[in-house]
């Protein structure tokens, strides 16, 4: 059986201090392509990522979802024989542990899941890596998902892996903060098999664009809840 093609998509906004570390920690030989989407950075994120061997795209419209959609358009905008079989998403701020990527891919490779979420709630977190408002927001969103769909969700973690077939079937649309929860809500509605894998989590390098500001926190919380109830 041929080895599945894996594409890694990393949205990045002003991650010059972190992106080289993230790319260096992706296990060698695991991915056929690592795509860094520079989401309107004002620093040299692009240059560092390109020098580290990544494919670099520029998405000038600010928004996490915009960046992820740009990465998907690149990955699937080529002949089918060159498209990925599996896609991994992770952040570019060095809060995730890229070396855990094989653990996220394992349920997909065994045919046991369509979508795998790296759960920070189930894993080991560095003190201070998840702020109180993040912990509460994740708990509330997970609770609502479980009430509506009868699952056992614990997190909306950005570190996740999904089969290409499932990702295309989900039909992602969100452009900003609702990206992760939209994927999980739609997967549940479609009856896709979603599992969680415990992942480690550490303090990010730099200041968070979401939890680091009151505006970002409120905006993300509103969009996550709006997305859940939109599909309720």
From TrEMBL:
SUPFAM superfamilies: Nucleotide-diphospho-sugar transferases. This is Glycosyltransferase family 2 protein. It comes from the Bacteria. Residues 7-158 form the Glycosyltransferase 2-like domain. Coiled coil: none annotated. The lineage of its organism: Bacteria, Pseudomonadati, Bacteroidota, Cytophagia, Cytophagales. InterPro entries: Glyco_trans_2-like, Glycosyltransferase_2, Nucleotide-diphossugar_trans. Pfam families: Glycos_transf_2. It comes from Hymenobacter negativus.
